[in-house]
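In this section we walk through a basic example: taking a raw amino acid sequence and producing a predicted 3D structure, encoded as discrete structure tokens. The instruction is simple. Fold the sequence below.
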Amino acid sequence: QVQLVESGGGLTQAVGSLRLSCATFGLAFSSHARAWFRLATGKVREFVAAVSWSGGSTNYADSVKGRFTVSRDYNKDTVYLEMSSLKPEDTALYYCAAAQTLGGVSARTSTAHYNYWGQGTQVTVSS
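The resulting token sequence is shown next.
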């Protein structure tokens, strides 16, 4: 059974930093592209960042470029999202996702591109 378990969310002030983690169970970690999405109140789930199966390709939403960094640790089967210079508009429930593909991630920005999802971790940024 595949499980993606997010952690690391919390409450922080604007311009602060957080690191989200997504531990992976029951999945061939190295053959899946990975991504982060978020869902803010009153909005639809939106793409945040993605990293290819090899770690050699990444993609970011314009709203987080230069502030967020996605990475993966093959020894720990874990994906990370380093978030800095946080803004109140970054407040959302953050989900990690996985897609079985050996391709790139430049076009994988839709929820439909991903097969597996975690339960989410809440990030709240106060002004």
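Looking at the output, two observations stand out. The longest strand covers residues 92-100. The radius of gyration is 13 Å. In the next section we compare this with other chains.
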